[in-house]
C-alpha cells in the first residue's frame, strides 16, 4: 500500500465523492466544499474542501455553511478538518468563526488482504450480528458502557440504516451471557475501495483480552467477502497503537471542529 496514493484515493472516493449515510440524509457539492445534511439526530457537516481553497474563499465558505445549517434548525454541525487540507490556517479560521475543536484522531488505513481474519475470542465471549431492534439495544448498551456517552443518536442512526440502507452497514456485539461488553460497526460504500470501521469499544473490565482485535478481524473478514480493498479508521490515542500492531498505517490526522447553532 502506497500511503500517498491511498490518501489521494481516500480523499477522492470518501470525501469529495461522499455518499449519504442513510435515507434521510443528502450529500451535495456547495461551492468549494462537500457537505452532508440530515435531520437533528443525523451526522451533519463538511467532509471535503477544495484543494485550492484560499483563505478569503475559506472565510466565505465558513459563513455559508453556518447559515445553511442554522437555517435548517440543526443544533450543531461538524467541519471535519484533515491535517493535509488547505489553507494551512483553516483551523484558525474555524476557531475565529466560533467552532470548537474536539480531540484529533489518526486517519488509519490497512489493505484488507494484509489483515488477519481469524476471530479469536476469550472464553465465554461470543459475537452476535446486529440485525434487529433487540440487537441495536444490545449495541447501544455496549457503546454506553465503553464510552460513557448517551447512545440515543447511535440508536436512531442504526435503526435507520437497518431499515433504509441495506448493504451499507454491518454491526456486531460481543456478549458474555446476556451482557453486552463490546460492539463495533462497519459502514460500506458500494462502488468504492473503502469500508469504514466505527464505534469499536469495550467496557473497562473486559479490555486487554483481545476483544477489540477480534472485532477488527471479524469486520476484515466481512470486508474481504464484499470485495473492499481497504479498511479505514478514525483512531483515538487508545486504539491507534492496537491498530498499528495489526497492520494499519497512519495517513493523516483529522480534527472535528464543531459549531453549535443553538445554546
What features would you describe in this structure?
The structure is a single chain. With 263 residues, this protein is α+β, with helices and mostly antiparallel strands. The chain folds into 2 domains: 3-107 and 254-260, Aminopeptidase (3-Layer(aba) Sandwich); 116-246, Gcn5-related N-acetyltransferase (GNAT) (Aminopeptidase). Helix content is 34%, strand content 31%. It has helices at residues 3-16, 55-71, 90-96, 133-147, 152-164, 211-226, 240-246, and strands spanning 26-30, 33-37, 45-49, 76-82, 100-101, 105-111, 125-129, 169-176, 179-188, 194-202, 230-235, 249-260. Strands 1, 2, 3, 4, 5, 6, 7, 8, 9, 10, 11 and 12 form a 12-stranded mixed β-sheet that branches. Helix 4 (133-147) packs antiparallel against helix 5. The mean pLDDT is 93.
Main sheet makeup:
12 strands, mixed
CATH fold title of the largest domain: Aminopeptidase
CATH C-level label of the largest domain: Alpha Beta
- Could you give the order of the helices and strands? HEEEHEHEEEHHEEEHEHE
Q: If classified by CATH, what would the architecture of the largest domain be? A: 3-Layer(aba) Sandwich
Structural class: alpha+beta
Distance between the termini: 45 Å
The geometry reads as globular
The overall average pLDDT, rounded, is 93
Please, how many helices?
7
- The proportion of strand residues reads 25-35%
Question: What is the percent of helical residues?
Answer: 25-40%
Query: What Rg do the Cα atoms give?
Result: 18 Å
How many structural domains does the protein architecture include?
Answer: 2
The CATH superfamily title of the largest domain? Gcn5-related N-acetyltransferase (GNAT)
Task: Give a count of the beta strands, DSSP E runs of length 2 or more.
Answer: 12
Uncertain runs with pLDDT below 50, 5 residues or more?
A: none
Amino acid at each position: 500500500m502506497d500511503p500517498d496514493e491511498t490518501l489521494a484515493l481516500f480523499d477522492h472516493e470518501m470525501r469529495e465523492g461522499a455518499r449519504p449515510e442513510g435515507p434521510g440524509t443528502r450529500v451535495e457539492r456547495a461551492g468549494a466544499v462537500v457537505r452532508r445534511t440530515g435531520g437533528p439526530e443525523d451526522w451533519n457537516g463538511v467532509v471535503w474542501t477544495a484543494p485550492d481553497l484560499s483563505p478569503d474563499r475559506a472565510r466565505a465558505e465558513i459563513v455559508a455553511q453556518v447559515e445553511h445549517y442554522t437555517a435548517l434548525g440543526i443544533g450543531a454541525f461538524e467541519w471535519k478538518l484533515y491535517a493535509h487540507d488547505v489553507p494551512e490556517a483553516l483551523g484558525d479560521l474555524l476557531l475565529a468563526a466560533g467552532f470548537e475543536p474536539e480531540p484529533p484522531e489518526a486517519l488509519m488505513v490497512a489493505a484488507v488482504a494484509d489483515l488477519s481474519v481469524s476471530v479469536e475470542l476469550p472464553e465465554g465471549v461470543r459475537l452476535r450480528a446486529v440485525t434487529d431492534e433487540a440487537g441495536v439495544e444490545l449495541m447501544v448498551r455496549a457503546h454506553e458502557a465503553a464510552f460513557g456517552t448517551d447512545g440515543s443518536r447511535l440508536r436512531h442512526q442504526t435503526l435507520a440504516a437497518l431499515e433504509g440502507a441495506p448493504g451499507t452497514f454491518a454491526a456486531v456485539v460481543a456478549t458474555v451471557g446476556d451482557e453486552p461488553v463490546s460492539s463495533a460497526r462497519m459502514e460500506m460504500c458500494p462502488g468504492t475501495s473503502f469500508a469504514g470501521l466505527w464505534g469499536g469499544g469495550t467496557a473497562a473490565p473486559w479490555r486487554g483480552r483481545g476483544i477489540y482485535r477480534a472485532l477488527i478481524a471479524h469486520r476484515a473478514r466481512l470486508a474481504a467477502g464484499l470485495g473492499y480493498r481497504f479498511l479505514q479508521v478514525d483512531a483515538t490515542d487508545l486504539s491507534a497503537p492496537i491498530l498499528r500492531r495489526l497492520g494499519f498505517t497512519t495517513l493523516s490526522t483529522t480534527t472535528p471542529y464543531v459549531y453549535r447553532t443553538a445554546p
